[in-house]
């Protein structure tokens, strides 16, 4: 008997997955996670993710819900699933929510982080975690360009052709360019907002790169917001540099394990 649902915080290395959502003849994160959940509770048939990620995209704070009978406590789900998941997927927290909870509709904001590596040579430690480029980028120039998209705008130009949604207005509360404190080659583009179109972050980052390399004149993103034309923007940056960092809800769940703010989990 269903009495509520479990909400998981899931981290994964997306390098060798064909994305989040199930696909015919493909290996996806959902396939692995649902299979592990069914080892503990075979009755679970559907899991509800908060955000779809493409092939090669990573996550630190994906949120996944499924209806449950309440027999296994959140700690039991975290530790039990660890025995049935590959090293590329980890459960970072479990908590209780009301039955039927749909994280995609409940989230109020998401944060993505895109990592750029300035290096002429390959670095195996960053190979699947950052997009490597050989240009010297000016963080101040990139930040000035990024500032033009903060706020509420129609982002119809910032999406791939596969996105056919009619409502393309979104609010970005943060777009910042931050150097890595330990590696001078690394810049991170941090984007936070109430919703995103298909490939929106990757197009935003690709445009920043093209402006930084002199392939586009500064102000490209502001012009694209006015025109609504994808051709006014730059390339779509590769998937491997993108991380779904955190998904925010208005309220915390019940009986979280580990507890909120626990140092062993980290601050996403």
Q: What count of helical segments does DSSP give?
A: 6
Return Rg in Å.
19 Å
Structural classification: alpha+beta
CATH 4th-level superfamily of the largest domain: Pseudouridine synthase I, catalytic domain, C-terminal subdomain
**Broad CATH class of the largest domain:** Alpha Beta
Identify low-pLDDT runs.
none
- Residue share in helix: 10-25%
Taking the sheet with the most strands, its summary is: 11 strands, mixed
Q: Can you tell me the CATH architecture of the largest domain? A: 2-Layer Sandwich
Global shape: globular
Question: Which range does the strand content fall in?
Answer: 25-35%
- How many DSSP E strands? 11
Query: How do the helices and strands follow one another from N- to C-terminus?
Result: EHEEHEHEEHEEEHHEE
CATH topology title of the largest domain: Alpha-Beta Plaits
Strand-helix topology:
Layout lengths: L3 E9 L16 H12 L7 E2 L8 E11 L5 H9 L6 E9 L5 H4 E12 L12 E3 L5 H9 L3 E4 L14 E11 L6 E8 L6 H13 L7 H8 L14 E8 L4 E4 L11
Parallel strand pairs: 3-10, 5-6
Antiparallel strand pairs: 1-3, 1-4, 2-3, 4-11, 5-9, 5-10, 7-8, 8-9
Task: Please describe what this structure looks like.
This protein is an alpha+beta fold. It folds into two domains: 4-101, Pseudouridine synthase I, catalytic domain, N-terminal subdomain (Alpha-Beta Plaits), CATH 3.30.70.580; 108-244, Alpha-Beta Plaits, CATH 3.30.70. It is 21% helix and 30% strand. It is built from six helices and eleven strands. It has helices at residues 29-40, 74-82, 103-106, 139-147, 200-212, 220-227; strands spanning 4-12, 48-49, 58-68, 89-97, 107-118, 131-133, 151-154, 169-179, 186-193, 242-249, 254-257. Strands 1, 2, 3, 4, 5, 6, 7, 8, 9, 10 and 11 form an eleven-stranded mixed beta sheet that branches. A hairpin with a 6-residue loop joins strand 8 (169-179) and strand 9. The longest helix has 13 residues, at 200-212. The protein is globular and about 60 Å long. The relative contact order is 0.19.
């Amino acid at each position: 008997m269903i009495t509520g649902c479990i909400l998981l915080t899931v981290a994964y290395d997306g390098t060798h997955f064909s994305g989040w959502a199930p696909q015919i003849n493909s290996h996806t994160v959902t396939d692995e996670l649902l299979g592990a959940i069914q080892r503990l509770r075979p009755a679970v048939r559907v899991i509800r993710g908060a955000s779809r990620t493409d092939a090669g995209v990573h996550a630190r704070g994906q949120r996944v819900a499924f209806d449950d009978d309440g027999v296994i406590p959140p700690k039991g789900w975290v530790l039990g699933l660890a025995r049935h998941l590959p090293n590329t997927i980890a459960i970072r927290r479990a908590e209780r929510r009301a039955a039927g909870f749909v994280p995609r509709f409940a989230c109020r904001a998401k944060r993505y982080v895109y990592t750029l590596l300035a290096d002429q040579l390959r670095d195996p430690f960053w190979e699947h975690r950052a997009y490597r480029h050989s240009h010297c980028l000016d963080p101040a120039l990139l930040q000035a360009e990024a500032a033009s998209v903060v706020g509420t705008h129609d982002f119809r130009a910032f999406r791939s052709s596969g996105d056919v949604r009619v409502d393309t207005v979104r609010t970005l509360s943060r777009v910042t360019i931050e150097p890595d404190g330990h590696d001078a080659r690394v810049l991170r583009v941090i984007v936070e907002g109430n919703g995103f179109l298909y490939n929106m972050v990757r197009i935003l980052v690709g445009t920043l790169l093209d402006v930084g390399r002199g392939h586009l004149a500064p102000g490209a993103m502001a012009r694209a917001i006015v025109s609504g034309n994808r051709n006014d923007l730059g390339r779509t940056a590769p998937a491997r540099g993108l991380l779904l960092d955190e998904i925010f809800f208005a309220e915390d769940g019940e009986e979280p394990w580990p507890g909120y703010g626990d140092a062993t989990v980290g601050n996403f």
